[in-house]
Design a protein that fits this description.
By secondary structure, the protein is an alpha+beta fold. The chain folds into two domains: 102 residues, no CATH class; 103 residues, no CATH class. 35% of the residues lie in helices and 12% in strands. It is built from nine helices and seven strands. Helix 7 crosses helix 8.
Length: 245
C-alpha cells in the first residue's frame, strides 16, 4: 500500500486498516513512497515535540503489535532509517542486486544506538462491523451505465470510483469485473445487515460456484472480465462515494 494524498500519513493509516479488514496477512511497504511521519519520529523530534502533542503514532511503534496480536507480518524496504533494525526479525541487504542476510551484524550495530523507550498508547482493535445498505438507484435504473476508464477508475452513471492508487490492479478487465461485482452486490448482497466482510465473502463464493460471468446477470458476457482479488473488491467499495453504511 502507499499514500494517496499530499498529507500522506492519514490516508496511509487508513490503507492499513482497510488491508486488515480485507484479511491481509502481510504488508509490503516501500519506505520511499511512504509518508515520513507515518513511518517514524526520530529521537530529536520526540524530545522537541511531546507525544501528547503529536496525534500520529508512527508505524514503527505498531509493527510488533500487528504481528503479535493480529498475525500480520511486514516486509519493509528501507534505505534511510536504521531504526527498524531494532524491531525486525530478519534483515536482508541488497548488495549489487544480490540479497545477503545481515541480521546478526545489523542487530549488533543497532545495539550501539538504542532507541528511546516509548510506550505507545493502547489502541482498541479496529471494528469491522460496517454493514452496507443497498442503493435504490440500482433497482430503479435497470440500464445503469458501467464504464471503465483505463486502469484509473470506474464510472457508474455519473459517479466515478478512483482506483489509481490500487496499484495491484493489472488491467482494465479487472476494473470491468469490479464494476459488475459492485452492481451485483447492490442488487443482491447489500442489505444493511451483512458486514462488508460477509458481503465480499458471499461475492467470492458466488463467483467460485457459478463463474465470473455470473455477476453480469446477462445471457452473454458484455465485455472482457478478469478476476480481481477480495482485496480489490474491498478497495473498490471503499472508494465508491455513494456507498451507504
Amino acid at each position: 500500500f502507499r499514500t494517496e494524498d499530499a498529507s500522506g500519513s492519514t490516508s496511509q493509516a487508513a490503507n492499513v486498516v482497510e488491508a486488515m479488514e480485507a484479511g491481509a496477512e502481510t504488508f509490503l511497504i516501500d519506505e520511499d513512497t511512504s509518508a515520513t511521519n507515518f513511518m517514524i519520529r526520530d529521537e530529536l523530534m520526540q524530545r522537541v515535540v511531546n507525544r501528547e502533542d503529536e496525534p500520529i503514532t508512527p508505524f514503527i511503534d505498531r509493527i510488533r503489535e500487528l504481528y503479535e496480536q493480529y498475525g500480520i507480518s511486514t516486509i519493509l524496504v528501507a534505505g534511510s532509517s536504521g531504526s527498524y533494525f531494532h524491531v525486525a526479525d530478519c534483515i536482508v541487504q541488497m548488495n549489487r542486486y544480490k540479497p545477503q542476510e545481515i541480521t546478526a551484524f545489523a542487530k549488533e550495530e543497532a545495539g550501539r544506538f538504542p532507541l528511546p523507550e516509548v510506550k505507545p498508547p493502547k489502541q482498541a482493535a479496529p471494528g469491522f462491523e460496517r454493514a452496507v445498505r443497498p442503493d435504490r438507484a440500482f433497482k430503479e435504473d435497470a440500464r445503469m451505465k458501467l464504464k471503465t476508464m483505463g486502469r484509473d477508475g470506474i464510472s457508474i452513471n455519473r459517479d466515478t470510483i478512483d482506483v489509481r492508487y490500487v496499484e495491484q490492479l493489472a488491467d482494465t478487465e479487472q476494473l470491468a469485473a469490479l464494476a459488475y461485482f459492485l452492481k451485483y452486490a447492490e442488487l443482491h448482497v447489500f442489505n444493511g445487515k451483512r458486514t462488508l466482510r460477509e458481503s465480499v465473502s458471499l461475492l467470492m463464493q458466488y463467483v467460485e460456484e457459478h463463474g465470473l460471468a455470473a455477476v453480469t446477470e446477462s445471457s452473454y458476457v458484455p465485455c472482457g472480465l478478469a478476476m480481481p482479488r477480495a482485496q480489490e473488491i474491498f478497495a473498490c467499495i471503499n472508494r465508491y462515494r455513494r456507498i451507504s453504511l
